[in-house]
């Protein structure tokens, strides 16, 4: 249902229309464009204005009209100015957009807009590719700029016909879609592109146009085009009568057709010279003017006229485009790029591949099966039959049958039936120009060659070429003059140096883009100045022919070296007339009656075969030279100067006399021999220079041997850290003087097989507890006999290390002894002093150095631990006899928790919670030796105070009894003393409970010390090994 917004205080009505009406309903507006009160519409209500017409507003005078405000009455709102939603914002220079839900139907009651903006100062060209809206009820409005202002409306579109393209005047455009509540359609799809601004559109068959502001200066930053179209099928001829632009910065571009695509550019123009006339291929042309931001000039004035099309006459090597007036190079046809303005050179139907028919027997087996026509000889010959019927086909067949070049037939066929490649795209491949140039050099003297086109019509890239030829042996070779050689040879064979790069001289290679002058490879770009592949070199001539074998020319192969000699130059192929020179190696000469030292490559007149005119010579030893070189050469012997001697040494250790590791010295008995070959090159038997004054052995071969047997004392390098697993290195070295060189000997002495040489340079040696190897080496003109020794640790483990370990274990006894025994401290001090003695013993075996052995550092650490735990033991002894109860936290921590952890149980259970009640008192008994204690009676059995004088027997018995009694009394005295001590203890029974708690605490601490001591010793061993090891600092 349609709504009519009423505005208070409004004299007239303005209709907000959203396209909901249908053709069956009565109209709400009048055809006479009267509106308001007093003018009724078909529905019986006051008439409104047609919202889709050009007068959508009702004025106070009851007329439908339009103003800048889109309404002639105050407070009236045009329905097209109502709020709309943004469907899409498009900011790229090209793009595509569609109606909502496209290709499905758009929704009801839609009012949304598309905002398009491109790069200034370009304009927007809008093209609908699909359009289907409910006719007269759903509409598309196109506005110029970023607004929906009715005054800027460019087009109002409805129905199902595809509208014409719409172009904005600026770089922005707005498209609005408005639908009603029923009958929805598919909608639309539209493309837009950013185009240069149109300065002027010219549609007459003749006319004149100028640059903006002409004859005054054109504006800055201008980019606009002139679109010219005339009556088809005429073409346009453009003539400039005035031309003045800033040279190099402001330009006029002329395009063939209604486009500014660079592929259709006819001419770019700049400067102040009037250009030549320009002609289009069709009935449209575009002229674009582009200026920069400074230095403006007068501009241009141009005339154009429509002329009849004149068809071009294309020459050999050209292809005529479908427009009939454009000729392009034949090799550009079907190359994947549109070279014709109409694109006819890349049409699939014109580039399709065809099979080479079997009837064309001349071209069977040429390396490919597919062809494409027309060929570059005649663009009208599109079938094989037309090719065979051409006037030059018979002449080309004669050329193909000639033997002027091995590949002439392939070249002719590749020209008349060009190769066609279908993958990845259809592509024509004409013969490469280098191939043509090579064949031309060999065949141009034939009459039939005149029928073949110029080699300049052939391309040098993306072309058809033959594979590099090879000899029967498989080596690369070249045909003709080698202009088509593509091998990798890149060396001057005579000078032996590499070729120079071709691009080092750009001016030379510029005329030869077809010659494949890449890197420094051998090529022949100048076929008439050079007969075969060559290259620039740094030799005296500046260039050299390359050593590439010709495929068909006669020549001589490389003869190889003579025995004990050489030849020069060394080439794979020698041309007739070339010579080769033989030489013998140093110390050799040509044998008597040997062939000449030079040989020439000649041709046999009968067979035409090439061969060497002379055989290869033979070299033999030149005894005279050898004698002079060996004995009399100044490089070997000078009479006034002693010759430099080369000494070969061999030696071994006979015995180790004494080894003092503390002093780091070793006394050894060794045997060495020096060998000198000075007499091998001297015939002077009285020669005495250069030898020490000692006994030597002179062999018949001239070899001199100097045996040395001696005792030597040398210093050693001892590494004591892992004592007794330490090692020691001792070296006995000999250094040669400036006139001598010393090196190890390669041979042993047959009389003494113990000598160490270069091949056998190591031998085992043993001295007491030391074992190792003796090694012979020579370096920096110094020979060394190096003894690397390692100690056998058995002795020191037994006599030095084990006592230390036993003492460390015995320290445990300190924690096992009763606490109240004062011998604990004395025992511990004894162990500590014993460790000091062990430390002195260990260090007494080793030299004084900056590094202590591991065992010595471990002893020091253990001594420190022993001293620490001795102090702890003293503390335990002190608190053991302390009276009174321990603090509650001590009782809980030590007597309960730590005691349990040490497997001693809960010691708090042994403590009494309260003091016991005394039921009796024990009187203290004092006993003094020699007096009876009156507190107790001691009756003696068998004695009575009432008896009178006994008899003798009785007295004897009494005496015996008294003696026994005396012994009993002595025992009693001892018992009384013990009883006295017990009574004293009982007397102090009130303090027993207090003393027991500290005693228990002392027991717990004692057990804890034992555990900590064992742990500390175990941790000390790896930590001492890690911390005490000497650090090796890289040099």
Automatic annotation (TrEMBL):
Positions of the UniProt region annotated as Disordered: 930-950
An example Gene Ontology CC term for this record: plasma membrane
Presence of keyword Transmembrane helix: yes
Kringle domain segment(s): 476-551
PROSITE patterns from the UniProt entry: CUB, FZ, KRINGLE_2, LDLRA_2, SUSHI
UniProt keyword annotation of Ligase present: no
Residues in CUB domain copies: 73-195, 198-307
A UniProt-annotated Pfam family: Fz
Record field: transmembrane: 795-818, 825-848, 854-879, 1010-1028
UniProt-annotated location(s): Cell membrane; Membrane
Residue ranges constituting the Sushi domain according to the UniProt record: 554-621
Entry GO MF terms: ATP binding; extracellular ligand-gated monoatomic ion channel activity
Residues of the signal peptide: 1-22
Keywords: ATP-binding, Disulfide bond, Kringle, Membrane, Nucleotide-binding, Phosphoprotein, Signal, Sushi, Transmembrane, Transmembrane helix
Membrane topology: Single-pass membrane protein; Multi-pass membrane protein; Single-pass type I membrane protein
PANTHER family: CUBILIN
Full protein name: CUB domain-containing protein
């Amino acid at each position: 249902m349609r709504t009519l917004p009423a505005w208070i205080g409004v004299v007239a009505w303005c209709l907000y229309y959203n396209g909901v009406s249908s053709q069956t309903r009565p109209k709400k507006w009048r055809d006479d464009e009267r509106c308001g009160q007093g003018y009724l519409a078909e529905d019986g209500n006051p008439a409104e204005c047609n919202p889709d017409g050009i007068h959508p507003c009702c004025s106070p005078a009851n007329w439908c009209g339009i103003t800048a405000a889109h309404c002639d009455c105050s407070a009236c709102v045009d329905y097209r100015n109502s709020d709309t939603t943004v469907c899409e914002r498009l900011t790229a220079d090209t793009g595509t957009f569609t109606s909502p839900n496209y290709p499905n139907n758009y929704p009801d009651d839609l009012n949304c807009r598309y905002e398009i903006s491109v790069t200034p100062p370009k304009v927007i060209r809008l093209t609908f590719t699909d359009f289907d809206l409910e006719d007269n009820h759903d509409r598309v409005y196109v506005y110029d700029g970023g607004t929906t202002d009715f005054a800027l409306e460019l087009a109002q579109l409805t129905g199902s016909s595809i509208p014409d393209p719409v172009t904005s005047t600026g770089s922005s455009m707005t498209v609005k879609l408005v639908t009603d509540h029923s009958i929805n359609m598919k909608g639309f799809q539209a493309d837009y592109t950013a185009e240069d601004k149109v300065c002027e559109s010219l549609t007459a068959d003749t006319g004149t146009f100028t640059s903006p502001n002409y004859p005054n200066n054109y504006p800055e930053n201008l980019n606009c085009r002139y679109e010219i179209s005339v009556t088809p099928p005429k073409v346009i001829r453009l003539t400039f009568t005035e031309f003045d632009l800033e040279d190099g910065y402001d330009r006029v571009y002329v395009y063939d057709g209604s486009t500014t695509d660079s592929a259709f550019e006819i001419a770019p123009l700049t400067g102040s010279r009037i250009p030549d006339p320009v002609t289009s291929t069709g009935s449209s042309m575009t002229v674009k003017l582009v200026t920069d931001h400074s230095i403006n000039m007068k501009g241009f004035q141009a005339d154009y006229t429509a002329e009849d099309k004149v068809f071009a006459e294309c020459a050999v090597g050209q292809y005529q485009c479908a427009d009939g007036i454009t000729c392009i190079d034949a090799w550009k046809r079907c190359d994947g790029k549109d070279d014709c303005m109409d694109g006819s050179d890349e049409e699939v139907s014109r580039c399709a591949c065809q099979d080479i028919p079997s009837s064309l027997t001349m071209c069977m087996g040429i390396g490919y099966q597919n062809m494409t026509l027309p060929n570059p000889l005649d663009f009208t010959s599109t079938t094989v039959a037309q090719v065979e019927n051409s006037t030059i086909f018979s002449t080309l067949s004669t050329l193909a049958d000639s033997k002027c070049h091995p590949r002439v037939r392939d070249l002719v066929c590749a020209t008349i039936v060009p190769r066609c490649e279908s993958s990845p795209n259809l592509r024509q491949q004409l013969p490469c120009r280098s191939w043509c140039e090579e064949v031309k050099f060999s065949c141009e003297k034939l009459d039939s060659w005149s029928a073949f086109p110029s080699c300049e019509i052939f391309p040098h890239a993306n072309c058809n070429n033959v594979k590099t030829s090879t000899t029967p042996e498989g080596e690369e070779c070249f045909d003709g003059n080698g202009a088509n050689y593509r091998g990798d040879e890149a060396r001057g064979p005579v000078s032996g140096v590499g070729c120079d790069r071709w691009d080092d001289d750009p001016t030379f290679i510029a005329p030869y883009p077809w010659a494949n002058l890449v890197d420094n490879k051998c090529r022949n770009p100048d076929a008439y100045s050079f007969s075969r592949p060559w290259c620039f070199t740094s030799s005296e001539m500046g260039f050299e022919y390359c050593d590439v074998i010709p495929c068909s020319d006669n020549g001589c192969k490389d003869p190889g070296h003579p025995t004990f000699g050489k030849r020069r130059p060394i080439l794979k192929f020698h041309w007739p007339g070339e010579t080769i020179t033989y030489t013998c190696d140093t110390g050799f000469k040509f044998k008597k009656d040997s062939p000449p030292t030079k040989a020439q490559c000649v041709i046999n007149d009968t067979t035409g075969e090439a061969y060497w005119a002379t055989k290869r010579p033979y070299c033999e030893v030149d005894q005279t030279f050898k004698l002079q070189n060996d004995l009399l050469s100044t490089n070997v012997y000078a009479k006034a100067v002693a010759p430099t001697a080369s000494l070969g040494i061999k030696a071994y250790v006979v015995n180790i006399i004494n080894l003092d590791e503390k002093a780091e010295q070793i006394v050894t008995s060794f045997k060495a021999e020096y060998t000198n070959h000075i007499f091998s090159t001297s015939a002077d038997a009285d020669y005495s220079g250069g030898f020490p004054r000692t006994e030597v052995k002179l062999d018949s071969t001239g070899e001199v041997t100097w045996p040395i047997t001696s005792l030597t004392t040398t210093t050693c390098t001892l590494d004591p850290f892992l004592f007794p697993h330490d090692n020691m290195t001792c070296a006995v070295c000999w250094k040669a003087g400036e006139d001598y060189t010393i090196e190890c000997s390669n041979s042993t002495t047959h009389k003494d097989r113990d000598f160490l040489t270069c091949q056998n340079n190591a031998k085992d040696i043993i001295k007491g507890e030391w074992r190792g190897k003796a090694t012979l080496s020579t370096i920096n003109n110094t020979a060394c006999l190096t003894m690397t020794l390692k100690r056998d640790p058995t002795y020191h483990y037994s006599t030095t290390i084990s006592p230390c370990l036993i003492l460390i274990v015995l320290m445990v006894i300190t924690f096992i002894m009763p606490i109240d025994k004062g011998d604990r401290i004395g025992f511990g001090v004894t162990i500590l002093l014993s460790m000091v003695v062990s430390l002195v013993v260990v260090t007494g075996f080793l030299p004084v150095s900056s590094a202590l052995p591991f065992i010595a550092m471990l002893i020091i650490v253990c001594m420190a631990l022993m001293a620490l735990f001795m102090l702890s033991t003293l503390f335990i002894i002190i608190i053991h006899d302390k009276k009174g109860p321990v603090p509650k936290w001590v009782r809980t921590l030590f007597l309960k928790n730590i005691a349990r952890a040490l497997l001693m149980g809960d010691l708090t259970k042994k403590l009494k919670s309260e003091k016991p009640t005394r039921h009796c008192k024990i009187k203290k008994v004092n006993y003094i030796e020699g007096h009876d204690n009156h507190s107790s009676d001691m009756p003696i059995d068998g004695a009575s105070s009432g008896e009178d004088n006994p008899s003798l027997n009785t007295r004897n018995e009494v005496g015996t009894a008294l003696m026994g009694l005396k012994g009993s009394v002595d025992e009693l005295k001892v018992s009384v003393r013990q009883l006295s001590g017990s009574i004293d203890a009982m007397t102090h029974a009130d303090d027993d409970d207090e003393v027991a708690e500290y005693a228990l605490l002392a027991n717990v601490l004692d057990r804890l010390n034992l555990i900590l001591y064992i742990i500390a010793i175990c941790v000390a061993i790896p930590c001492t090994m890690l911390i005490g090891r000497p650090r090796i600092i890289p040099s």
